[in-house]
Amino acid sequence: MTDDGGDVSDSNGQNRTKIEPLTPLTGKRAKAALLVAGDQQSNETIATNVGIAPSTLALWKRQPLFAAHVDRICTETLAALKAEGIASKQNRIDLMVAEHDLLERIRAERAAHHAKHDADIPGADTGLLVRTIKIVGVGRDQQTVDEWVIDNTLINQRSALKRQVAQEKGEWTEKREVKGTVTFADVVALAGDGDDV
């Protein structure tokens, strides 16, 4: 593009758009662009984190320069992930942490909902209980009954993710069964084999 926004012609007379480097965003706009590209937070949360009004963020998102920066961040991030993907230990850990955070968000939002609407149900405000509706009886005696159960799927998935992260970081070891007997004398002997302080 020329300075007046027009196209330039190459030696063959073909119109081609000249790609100009983007003017860097600074300060709050740069932070907002990064958070928008991350696509992990609502617009209201991003605005709060950046220290602007949600209407300001909405205005920025409509501006071509801001949108171009968001697109560039997304493109560069995708390229980096494709280059390393899950082959990178840190990428695997980051993905597991992000998945764990999403599960925690589900639990927290469920807890807030149940604290507001089901405060009379013990434990509902933890977010670890789920309500199912059971149909009991037949015909005119048929009724619907609320049944509250622990969300084992959520708990188990969160635990599995924590375990996977610990394994990736080398902080997890499997328990080993000791066969035979160990006497107090054996423990003292093993302790005596260490370096004196």
Describe the structure concisely for a colleague:
The chain is mainly alpha-helical and 197 residues long. Helices cover 53% and strands 10% of the residues. The N and C termini lie far apart (73 Å).
Q: Which strand order spans the largest sheet, edge to edge or round the barrel?
A: 1-2
How much is the radius of gyration in Å? Answer: 29 Å
The count of domains is 2
**How far do the termini sit from each other?**
73 Å
Spell the H/E element sequence: EEHHHHHEEHH
- Tell me the overall shape: flat
The total of helices stands at 7
User: Major beta sheet, specifics?
Assistant: 2 strands, antiparallel
Strand content: 5-15%
The overall average pLDDT, rounded, is: 80
Q: What low-confidence regions span 5 or more consecutive residues with pLDDT below 50? A: 1-10, 15-20
- Summarize the amount of helix as a percent range: 40-55%
Number of strand segments: 4
Structure classification: mainly alpha
What can you tell me about this protein's structure?
With about 200 residues, the protein is mainly alpha-helical. The chain is built from 7 helices and 4 strands, in the order ββαααααββαα. It has helices at about 25-40, 45-50, 55-60, 65-85, 90-115, 150-170, 185-190; strands spanning about 10, 15, 130-135, 145-150. Strands 1-2 form a two-stranded antiparallel ribbon. The protein has a two-stranded antiparallel ribbon with strand order 3-4.
